[in-house]
């Protein structure tokens, strides 16, 4: 999967699991997810689990932080780093 | 000897008998002994004394959850004052309301938050720097303060049905009675390892902060970053060989669902205490697989009474009542009465851990029955088997989420300040034991979800922020002229 495919997949996951059917008009790829509390600790961990299975990667406990999850762009970059290792 | 004096002894005994015994885990492998903690506390008590704070006043603490905060809470108590923990994640407007209501004589602020809290520190007269071993703090002394009963130990603020937070006052007697009962009831022995998961503003923390003192036990404080990461929590509980855990059903469900618990060994865990929400048999049966050597307890009690009923879980009794795990029978220090209402049989609780009252009202918060004071919990219960009771529902609109209790009026008050908003309805739904809050809004102006989430985060406590926002033309009413929640849920599912 390339960067755009991963980003689309992250967007799709957030649309389905956070907003139900469609992204709000004021949402973009830099909108804070964790620090804005759009996502709580339950939904972030579920998202990590989902992408670990989909991309066959493993995230370490200390990597599950807002630094790696706080927007579509940040999370996509984190997933790309994991894939490149 | 007064309860306050007994409490002071509680902390001094482990220091005298086991000065080298670890009190707090600082970082991996490092600990702070009872002797070192006592020395730190004496220094801080000295600083509080220099500040000449009035006796029987309250000292607020504005800090992240960390080891120094624990020592500060103990210092405040040992200096003869009561403590008031304030959540650093609360919006400033809520913090100002809490400070205006409680009127503490001083506030201890973690240095990094001083600038952001400046609006709350305008009527302070002096400030002292308190340099600590992990992070720096400042003590600000207020010019205007309130004097409380000498027996006051702590104040915890919770959501209020009028839409503003209310402060629940507890005495030293309440602390001592509860702590001794815990020490006798659960499988603690000398030098047991406890973990603190709940924030200090949450009443579960009373157990974590004070019960370890009875057995000269050790306490591992987890911070907000750790408690938001289930994988890290599973790792910490296992690697630190924690023996007693106290948290909510939401926490344990989350830990099992996303914490990768199967990777770790939890055979050291001896007692699992669960409170704050309805506990399902399914949750506790799954937990038993991960904690094979543990005893399980379902504890019940609103902040006004602390734990007042409990059930030592017997898995074979599920067949006698399978709707939920019972909340059990009253603790030996509690008094219980039942009251028939149109919503069902509601529970009233009295006894030695009953609050002293609300900060805003110390008289009109009790019902007097047979010469004893009782707090009407608003919880509808039913008698099940063996003299045990089970929780059925609320008699009012209060919501429980992640152990927090939330009054819809507080959410409504926050959202009503938004331009164009005319009317609101707040309802909840529960799926897989997770409670979601839904806001239905009649407004001249429409707003997008991200904006609304941000707006709420600045107006109300984070646990209260609705999960969904739906703009509607009208709020449907049912035959009793109350909000038709069923119809609103249908609208939500259609949108």
Structural summary, described in words:
Chain A is mainly α. Chain A contains 4 helices and no strands. Chain A has one domain. Chain A is globular. Chain A starts with a helix and ends with a helix. In chain A, 27% of the residues are buried. Chain B folds into 2 domains: 381 residues, ANL, N-terminal domain (Rossmann fold), CATH 3.40.50; 88 residues, 2-Layer Sandwich (GMP Synthetase, Chain A, domain 3), CATH 3.30.300. Helices cover 29% and strands 29% of the residues of chain B. In chain B, helix 2 packs across helix 3 and helix 8 packs across helix 9. The model of chain B has no long low-confidence stretch (mean pLDDT 91).
In short:
The complex is a heterodimer of chains A (85) and B (495). Chain A is mostly helical and 85 residues long. Chain A has 4 helices and no strands.
Instruction: Quickly give the CATH architecture of the largest domain in chain B.
Output: 3-Layer(aba) Sandwich
Work out the number of β strands of chain A: 0
How many domains make up the 3D coordinates of chain B? 2
- The run of helices and strands of chain A is HHHH
Oligomer: heterodimer
Structural shape of chain A: globular
Distance between the termini of chain B: 63 Å
Number of domains of chain A: 1
Largest binding interface between chains:
A-B, 23 and 26 residues
Determine Rg of chain A (CA atoms, Å). Answer: 12 Å
β-strand percent of chain B reads 25-35%
The CATH superfamily of the largest domain in chain B bears the name ANL, N-terminal domain
How many strands, what sense, and barrel or not for the largest sheet of chain B? 5 strands, mixed
Extract low-pLDDT stretches of chain B.
none
Question: How would you write the strand order of the largest sheet of chain B?
Answer: 4-3-5-7-6
